[in-house]
Automatic annotation (TrEMBL):
GO cellular component term, pick one: plasma membrane
Membrane topology term: Multi-pass membrane protein
Signal peptide limits: none
Name recorded for this polypeptide: Arsenic transporter
InterPro entries with a match to the protein in the record: Arsenical_pump_ArsB (IPR000802)
Statement: the UniProt record of this protein carries the keyword Nucleus: no
Subcellular location, record wording: Cell membrane
Pfam family membership, one: ArsB
Keyword Membrane: yes
GO biological process: response to arsenic-containing substance
Length: 457
């Protein structure tokens, strides 16, 4: 039965990554789950257990992505990127740093998928307007892709694996932020240094900031654009308040997403009677030719394009992973983690983080984070050692996927987006770049985690 569980996991993973004939990740994972049920690798009684682990995390992530998509349609991210272009004041290296920092902020607030898939096309468009060479543009594009994951450590909502791990171990939003915000800052700083060293020669020294459009021209729905700042502020407060009140994170993000959907749809209508001036173009940005770039957001399209497949994927893939646990396979990893735990916080953080990063790069970070979480739960560690394992699992699952293209679904989608825009990055080239960029940042992040945990206790 152990061999069967491993075979089902491998087949499911291959189907999820390959997606033959347009088969979505959700249906691929669900097929694996059905096979696991038919072979009794998992039982029907395991379904509620798995849903209890991943349900809140999955819907919280969908809510965050919905918010990101609506704000992207309003022009928020393009507006921010164009402002960054002006702040660079014609200095190419300053622009490179600012784009990376913008990516880190977007990743922290809107999750890594939003940073990679939304920001990258915007940056490409701006670089074309600035007439950057293909070589220079590639450096910016790779930096955007890398910082999307490296910048997704600080908050629970910054990455789906963060939410899954925090949910599984009952880590509240405030404690997670206390530990990971400083570690996230160190990680971004380390990423910035590594990226700058890697691409400094390809970055042009000067550019003409006047070549880029006016940031105001990016705003396509002023009312939703403005409401976005209010909703984000309320959400940040809500994240901290939700835990003491025992309100699931998914409820908080759902309220935020619903609020923006209603604003974008101008519903209920009587509340938006005073917004007609904005809808007619007053206060909206203008394009370089003077025309108003205003358009009503298609809420139906945004909701339809939300990652609903991730809901099916979460249940299906994690049921397959739970089958590995039922066959005792996670116990072997638990034994390794327990041995690392006997050598203190530093060895624990570095050891667990590196192992998880390698696993995530080989078999994708979403199943990896749960496999590692199950192993950590069975390792029997306590106190700071246990906490070091929890956060090292998050760091390894967030950063490890950048080593290979199959490490995360977001990376595969990102590479597909680049291909459609005429920028092809082969898997061999990606791996060579990814491993050089990831390993030093990973070690620095894990070391900062260990040191910070020892300080705050």
């Amino acid at each position: 039965m152990t061999v069967v569980a491993i075979a089902i996991f491998v087949i499911t993973l291959v189907l999820v990554i390959w997606q033959p004939r347009g088969l979505g990740i959700g249906w691929s994972a669900l097929g694996g789950a059905a096979l696991a049920l038919l072979t009794t690798v998992v039982s029907l009684s395991d379904i509620p257990t798995v849903w209890d682990i991943v349900g809140n995390a999955t819907f919280a992530f969908v809510g965050i992505v919905l918010i990101s998509l609506i704000l992207d349609e309003s022009g928020l991210f393009e507006w921010a990127a164009l402002h960054v272009t002006r702040w660079g004041r014609g200095n190419g290296r300053a622009l490179f740093v600012l784009v990376i920092l913008l990516g880190a902020v977007i990743s922290a607030l809107f999750a890594n998928d939003g940073a990679a898939l939304i920001l990258t096309p915007i940056v490409i468009q701006i670089l074309l307007a600035l007439k950057f060479s293909a070589r220079a543009s590639l450096g910016f594009v790779l930096a955007c892709g890398f910082i999307a994951d490296a910048g997704s450590l600080p908050l629970v909502i910054s990455n789906l694996v963060n939410i899954v791990s925090a949910d599984y171990f009952g880590v509240d939003f405030a404690r997670y932020a206390l530990v990971m915000v400083p570690v996230g800052i160190v990680t971004v700083a380390a990423s910035l240094g590594v990226l700058y060293l890697a691409f400094r020669r390809s970055i042009p020294r000067r550019y003409d900031p006047a070549s880029a459009p006016d940031p105001r021209s990016a705003i396509r729905d002023p009312l939703t654009f403005t409401a976005g700042f209010v909703v984000l502020g309320v959400l940040l407060v809500g994240y901290f308040v939700a835990d003491p009140l025992h309100i699931p994170l998914s409820i908080v993000t759902a309220v935020g997403a619903l609020a923006l959907i209603l604003v974008a749809a101008r519903q209920p209508a009587f509340l938006f009677s005073r917004a007609k001036s904005l809808d007619s173009g007053e206060g909206a940005g203008t394009a370089p030719d003077g025309s108003v770039r205003l358009r009503r957001i298609s809420v139906t399209k945004v909701v339809r394009e939300a990652p609903w497949q991730i809901v099916i994927f979460s249940v299906g893939m994690y049921l397959v992973v739970y089958g590995l646990r039922n066959q005792g396979l996670t116990d072997h990893l638990a034994g390794v983690f327990a041995e690392l735990g006997n050598h203190g916080v530093w060895i624990t953080a570095l050891g667990v983080g590196v192992i998880v990063a390698i696993l995530a790069s080989i078999m994708n970070n979403l199943p990896t984070v749960l496999i590692a979480a199950l192993a950590i739960g069975a390792a029997g560690a306590t106190g700071l050692t246990h906490e070091a394992m929890i956060y090292a699992n998050v760091i390894g699952s967030d950063l490890g996927p950048k080593i290979t293209p199959i490490g995360s679904l977001a990376t595969l989608l990102w590479l597909h987006v680049l291909d459609r825009r005429g920028i092809h990055i082969g898997w061999g080239r990606y791996f060579k770049t990814g491993i050089v960029l990831t390993l030093p940042v990973l070690v620095i992040s894990l070391a900062s985690l260990a040191g910070w945990l020892l300080i705050i206790g």
